[in-house]
Design goal:
By secondary structure, the chain is mostly helical. About 40% of the residues lie in helices and about 10% in strands.
C-alpha cells in the first residue's frame, strides 16, 4: 500500500502555452464560450509547472510516500508526434529528481485525457493510427 496523493497534468500544471507545449483537447475546449459555465480553464490552474518544488515540500510535510501524476503528451510532443520538446522533457526529469530526493515514490500516468489537439483534429482515439502515435509518445 502506498500513502500518497494524485494529480493530472491539465488540472494542476498551468503554463498551458509555455516552453514549447502544444495545445491539448482541454486547452481548446475550455476556450470555446459556453463550454464551461464560469469560463474557468487550466491555463494557470495551481501553477504546479512553476511551483512543483513547493508541492513536493508539502507532500513531504504531510508524510506522503508516493505521488501519482500524469505527463502532458502535448508538453513532451507539441505536435503529437515528431520532434520532442526538450524543455518539457527537462521539466518532468526535474520533477522526478526532486521526488526521488524527497524520498517520494513517483507513480507516472502516461495519459490522463489530454490528447494533443493536433491529433484530435486527425480523428483522435477514433483514428486507428492512434496506437502508433501513442507508441511514439
Amino acid at each position: 500500500f502506498l500513502w500518497g496523493t494524485a494529480t493530472a497534468a491539465y488540472q494542476i500544471e498551468g503554463a498551458w502555452d509555455e516552453d514549447g507545449k502544444g495545445p491539448n483537447i482541454w486547452d481548446t475546449f475550455t476556450k470555446i464560450p459556453g463550454n464551461i459555465v464560469d469560463g474557468s480553464s487550466g491555463d494557470v490552474a495551481c501553477d504546479s509547472y512553476h511551483q512543483y518544488q513547493r508541492d513536493i515540500e508539502l507532500m513531504k510535510y504531510l508524510g506522503m510516500s508516493s505521488y501519482r501524476f500524469s505527463i502532458s503528451w502535448a508538453r513532451i510532443l507539441p505536435n503529437g508526434i515528431g520532434e520532442p520538446n526538450p524543455v518539457g522533457i527537462k521539466h518532468y526529469r526535474d520533477l522526478l529528481t526532486a521526488l526521488h530526493t524527497a524520498e517520494i515514490e513517483p507513480v507516472v500516468t502516461l495519459y490522463h485525457w489530454d490528447l494533443p489537439q493536433v491529433l484530435e483534429d486527425q480523428g483522435g482515439w477514433l483514428n486507428s493510427t492512434v496506437a502508433d502515435w501513442f507508441e511514439e509518445y
